[in-house]
Amino acid sequence: MELSTRYLGLSLRNPLVASASPLSKTVDGVRLLADAGVGAVVLYSLFEEQLRAEAERDARLALAGSESFGESLSYFPQSAGADHGPHRYLTLLERAAADVDVPVIGSINGSSPGSWAGYARSMQDSGAAAIELNVYYLPGDPHVSGRDVEQRHLDIVAGVKNAVTVPVAVKLSPYFSATAEMARRLDLAGADGLVLFNRFLQPDIDPEALAVVPGTSLSRSDESRLPMTWIALLHGRLDASLAATTGVEGAKELIKYLLAGADVVMTASALLRHGPDYAAVMLDGMCRWMRHKGYTTIDDFRGLLAVPVDADETARERGDYVSALRRANGANVGPW
């Protein structure tokens, strides 16, 4: 059974990727994921706010030093980065990349153009095989237009692509007014891959405590339908790789995403629920299914159920929608 695949131009031993999560916060955690058989590991995300805080602190330290010693203008205080998040992140990345035999992908989570580019370069220099840009931005300001939101993504990609030579993937939300066009624009802007989709951790409300409760629930299998729809629509229409994420609970979702046309399938929730060793269970399940169906390679069935490139995507989706409603209403389904 040949499970190898390619993602972002990288050769992976299989299409199951451990997405950013607390499991990859230590070298031991990354090693456990690699030993369980995943094809690549996305390191836990470093947040834009951490980068901003580091820059502000370093500026204050440099200013304080310059007021005391003239030569301190070229002096970087020892305490400035030794125990800070970004410094630890690069150290972990360097050690993890050297310790495992699968690609380790650095992840930056943010919403505005800023220090992404410089830190992406630092990730590359620390051994990252690629960079994942997790653009987590909920545009709640009614004065921000849709085009402004889209341009923000394009500016971030352009800045990072100009700073690094390793591949760059963009993790998107599903809430663009024209997702396919946005995917094409990011593809043309040089994004090497698109990760579909980010999950906004929507808060809940506790009516007894009169408090907002943070939402941090793990994804469920029924949440895979939206990204699966877009994977099937975009497969074969972009140069960028397509990574599926959200709702991956087991081998079934892994297989379904590949049938839709994903190059790789990412999961965090399943591995958090069951532990890193569950990766081997998922891969074994996929292999059993492949043997049952007579497939010997991933490419034998990848994209088998994607929307054909020469199809009318809008008509296809409309037909599927109407068919689903007619089934729900118990009507006979026409020859869509």
By CATH, the topology of the largest domain is: TIM Barrel
Structural class: alpha/beta
> How do the strands line up in the largest sheet?
3-4-6-7-8-9-12-13
CATH architecture of the largest domain: Alpha-Beta Barrel
Shape: globular
The span between the termini is 36 Å
Give the CATH class of the largest domain: Alpha Beta
H/I helix tally: 11
Number of separate domains:
2
Order of helices and strands: EEEHEEHHEHEHEHEEEHEHEHHH
Pfam families: DHO_dh
Pathway: Pyrimidine metabolism; UMP biosynthesis via de novo pathway
InterPro entries: Aldolase_TIM, DHO_dehydrogenase, Dihydroorotate_DH_1_2, Dihydroorotate_DH_cat
Protein name: Dihydroorotate dehydrogenase-like protein
Explain the overall architecture.
The chain is of the alpha/beta class and 336 residues long. The protein has 2 domains: 5-305, TIM Barrel; 311-336. The chain has 11 helices and 13 strands. The chain has helices spanning 27-36, 48-66, 85-99, 116-125, 146-163, 179-188, 225-234, 251-260, 269-274, 278-293, 313-328, and strands at 5-7, 10-12, 16-18, 40-42, 46-47, 104-110, 130-135, 168-172, 193-196, 204-206, 211-213, 241-244, 264-267. The strands form 3 sheets. The protein has an 8-stranded parallel β-barrel, surrounded by 7 helices. The protein has a two-stranded antiparallel sheet with strand order 1-2. Helix 8 (251-260) links the parallel strand 12 (241-244) and strand 13 (264-267). The longest helix has 19 residues, at 48-66. The radius of gyration is 22 Å and the shape is globular. The protein starts with a strand and ends in an 8-residue tail after the last helix. This is Dihydroorotate dehydrogenase-like protein. Residues 3-286 form the Dihydroorotate dehydrogenase catalytic domain. It comes from Mycolicibacterium arenosum. Its cofactor is FMN. Pfam families: DHO_dh.
